[in-house]
Amino acid sequence: NIMNSMARADLSYEPLIQHMFRACMGDKKAGGGTRLDAQSVCNILHSHASLNIQAAGWQRHLCAYLEGLELRQVAPLGVANVAWSLAVLDIQKNSTVRWTLGALGNLEIQHLEPSMLRQVHQFLLWCEIEGLYDENILDKEWSSRLHRIVLSFRNEPCISELHQDVAGTVGKMNLEYQLETVHPESGYSLDIFLPNTNTAIEVDGPFHYMKGTQRPLGATVLKRRHLQQLGYDLVSVPYWEWDSCSTIKEKKAYLQSRLETLT
Q1: Which is more confident, 7 or 179?
Q2: Which residue, of 64, 91, 126, 168, is most buried by count of CB atoms within 10 Å of its CB?
């Protein structure tokens, strides 16, 4: 519950995280000694992914717990959270991936919430990119059906003032661009797309980072990685760097320098 609350608030406190890790590992001085239940395992792993916490030892421990659970012990939301977490944290442990694929195969797609469908879709994309998908465990028709449903979602793009400012500057540089272009296979929406150079510009406001830090959250890390793996040249524009540019001349020079690093 503590880890869940921290993830929802985009907060991380390293000493507390280490204390909870020792407890999960059975350190009685840290309050451990009780075996974790299925929901706790899923919640902790999902919190790690949301906050982009790299803790290989703890994550190996959680994966071992998962693989010891019967599929019926894990609720559909837990399965979706685990799937997404493996993709974000890039945990390419074959036995855990196979367990997750098997758990997904037991779910009824029509009973999953849209947010869960998106999580699973990103996991399956990760499996395809990394060569981890095993259609002997999860039938391709199941994943194709989910893919079609996710791509049918139509959300109105929310374009912030920061996003509009960056796009306006791109326009003043006489570069052809498109706003909120959707990649047809992944379903990812590109903040600003430069078709002539196949470049994606991602405008990363404060909600892309852990509060009070310049550390990107898990969803942002996964999107950046996937866009590059899908063949885009990627430019990430952090809000604090953009805010340091006070004039249009400085903004144009900043973007030009970022784009030149791609060539």
Answers
A1: 179
A2: 126
